[in-house]
Write a structure and sequence with these properties.
By secondary structure, the chain is of the alpha/beta class. It is built from four helices and twelve strands; from the N terminus they run βαβαβαββββαβββββ. A five-stranded mixed sheet has the order 3-2-1-11-12. Strands 4-5-8-10-9 form a five-stranded mixed sheet, with no helix packed on it. The protein has a two-stranded antiparallel sheet with strand order 6-7. It starts with a strand and ends with a strand. It comes from Bacteroides sedimenti.
Length: about 170
């Protein structure tokens, strides 16, 4: 019997810790981080709170790269997920990931890096793309964002965008 799984998704913390991460992810079963974690402490705090699936980003050092892969592909509730920090988006996927996506598209492709929140369905590949934007304070983005959603029997539901003030 499968149950629905609640996911808290963030990216680009760049070593910045905010207690609000835990507040907003309180109801979540897992936390996913799409790279540029920025410090081992941020990863450890998230992992201590809920099971953490993460990838390393371009700013992450060897300590984080030893713990997390560059590409994380896994299945949750019958939905195959692929996370890579630099991945692009529908119509403009990064060359480093095009092969994996085009040959065997996951149901959900998550990337970070741009600091721009984007949720877009790729009709050609039958795949949802989510970039949760940036949860940290470093970068040109004006609004810090994260995303919450539910995976229920292979379907994505109840997607919420969380804006972090301050």
């Amino acid at each position: 019997m499968q149950k629905m799984v609640r996911i808290g998704l963030l990216s680009d913390t760049h070593g910045y810790w905010d207690e609000k991460y835990l507040k907003y992810f309180e109801e979540c079963d897992e936390i996913w981080h799409a790279g540029d974690i920025g410090s081992i402490e941020v990863a450890e705090k998230l992992a201590a709170f809920r099971p953490l699936r993460a990838v390393y980003g371009n700013i992450d050092g060897q300590d984080i790269r030893k713990l997390y892969p560059q590409i994380n592909r896994f299945t949750v509730e019958g939905a195959e997920v692929l996370i890579k920090h630099i991945g692009g988006y529908p119509g403009n996927y990064d060359p480093s990931i095009q092969g994996s996506i085009l040959v065997r598209p996951p149901k959900l492709f998550i990337s970070g890096h741009s600091h721009i929140l984007k949720v877009k369905y790729d009709k050609t590949l039958g795949m949802l793309h989510i970039n949760p934007g940036a949860a940290g304070i470093y970068g040109f983005h004006k609004v810090r964002t994260m995303v919450r959603f539910v995976i229920d029997k292979g379907e994505f539901k109840d997607l919420e965008v969380i804006e972090l003030a301050g």
